[in-house]
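User: Working on a comparison across species. This one is LysE family translocator from Desulfobulbus oligotrophicus. Can you predict its structure so I can line it up against the others?
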Amino acid sequence: MTLSIQQGWAAGVLSCCGIAVGTLCHISAAAFGLSLLLLSSELIFNLIQYAGAFFLCFLGLKTMLSPPGIATGKQSASMKEPVAVFRDAFVINLLNPKTTLFFTAFLPQFISPQQGNVTTQVFILGGLVILLGAASDLTYVFIAVTVGERLQAAAGFRQSRRYFIGAVYIGIGLTTVLSGVFSR
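Assistant: Here's the predicted structure for LysE family translocator from Desulfobulbus oligotrophicus:
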């Protein structure tokens, strides 16, 4: 959403694609049993969770410290390149162990070994989750772009958007850390 507000449709859609590919990695891990290894070690689970939170805070600080954007609407130095947009969304999703937990706990409820290859079933159900998630994420992109266009019209927001966007990243990162600390 933050990238959609800041950079528009293209960044939002690329971010959705990065999230989808990250989700595909989680589905693959669940299909081949790798998720169970991750979930069997509280240390590894926590390390991945904190790495994801650190990455979000890093992105937030990087955004806040970037040079101010150009108010003309042209791409500024603080705008991310398309590859970086995709990569960052992919890494954030990949470093979310709760996604692994979701697929390991959720999908097996709908798998029936009597119905055929279990791995194939995991990929089919996982593909449906990706499609539903993409539809949901693209709805958020639409809302964020609409809100972003209105915010961009306000001179005050143009001057402070990098702080707003950075604070959102940091807030999500800190929430991730705190949810891990308080969930024990």
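For your comparison, note: DSSP finds eight helices and no strands in the chain.

User: Helpful, thanks.
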